[in-house]
Amino acid sequence: MDLKAYERMKIKNIIIPLFIKDRCESCGLTNNLEMHHQKQFVEMLRESLDRLNYKYNLMTEDYTEEELINITDMLLGIHIQSTYTTLCEKCHTEIHSSGDLIAHFLKEKKKKEEGALDALKLEIIFNKFVGIKLFKNEQKEFKQMLNELYNSPKGSHNCMGLKTINSYYHDNNLNYTLDSKIERSRKFGKKGNAYWLISKTNNQ
Questions:
Q1: Angle at alpha carbon of residue 172, lines to 126 and 24, rounded to 5°
Q2: Would residue 103 count as lying in a domain?
Q3: pLDDT per residue as tens digits for the range 113-141
Q4: Same domain, 19 and 57
Q5: H helix runs in 59-183, sequence order
Q6: Rounded distance between C-alpha atoms, residue 44 and residue 29, angstroms
Q7: Are 22 and 78 found together in one domain?
Q8: Are residues 141 and 176 in the same domain?
Q9: What b/e sequence results for 137-155 when a residue is b if at least 16 CB atoms lie within 10 Å of its CB, and e otherwise?
Q10: Which pLDDT belongs to residue 115?
Q11: Cβ–Cβ < 8 Å for 71, 62
Q12: Which pLDDT score is estimated for 204?
């Protein structure tokens, strides 16, 4: 199978539901909606292969199953950090022939999309840790990931507590909660060993 078609199909099923809006951002139509990439898909595919140090082969048969998984994961990461515009089929066709028009759309959408991107990155981080007992080392890893997302000062994770992290959930309208619990065993005696637990809530 053609590599570009294969990866486009894989990524499309993940990215479009996350980013596509309910109407064309140019004319307002709600039918025949498509998602326009700021970067061309083939450009992102080549960037993924370069990062993985893989040669560009036309067919999926030229890669192992593990290599294809690596390519998809890398490509997905690049897509998540990219910028998109929801357009109807007609406006999408027009936008490819007008560099000024796409520049206008991207400028108008930049601030809103940056906020949405941060929220998506937060959800990816939180999902990684949901249901896992976060003891001291795991808490440190979790807080460092949050710091990297927000470009916080080095070492600031040391003073990051439950209240601060739960505010991330609230401020970004994410349905998670972080609680502190105690694991009791003979090893830790009556005092027990404290850990954090991230749970998904049913709030809408």
A1: 110
A2: no
A3: 666 666 677 777 777 788 888 888 888 88
A4: yes
A5: 65-80, 89-95, 99-129, 136-150, 162-171
A6: 28
A7: yes
A8: yes
A9: eebeebbbbbbeeeeeeee
A10: 61
A11: no
A12: 46
Please report where in the chains the tokens 């990461």 appear, as a residue. Answer: 77
> Residues 65, 145: one domain?
no
pLDDT in tens, 91-108: 888 776 655 555 555 555
**Rounded CA separation 180/134 (Å):** 9
Last residue of a domain, one of 97, 132, 148: 97
Task: State pTM to two decimals.
Answer: 0.44
Measured N-to-C along each axis, helices 65-80 and 99-129 cross at an angle, to the nearest 10 degrees, of 110
Please tell me the distance from the alpha carbon of residue 79 to that of residue 124, in angstroms, as a whole number. Answer: 14
CA–CA distance, 96 with 36 (Å, rounded to integer) = 9
Dig out the tokens for 87 from the structure: 């357009």
On whether both 171 and 85 belong to a single domain, the answer is: no
Domain contains 82: yes
The domain tally of the chain equals 2
E strands of the chain, at which residues?
Answer: 33-37, 84-88, 176-185, 189-200
| Domain of residue 34, residue span | 3-97
On the CB side of 116, how many CA atoms lie within 13 Å of its CA?
14
In tens, the pLDDT along 20-79 reads 889 998 889 998 898 887 777 888 889 999 999 998 888 899 999 999 999 999 988 888
Whether residues 92 and 146 share a domain: the answer is: no
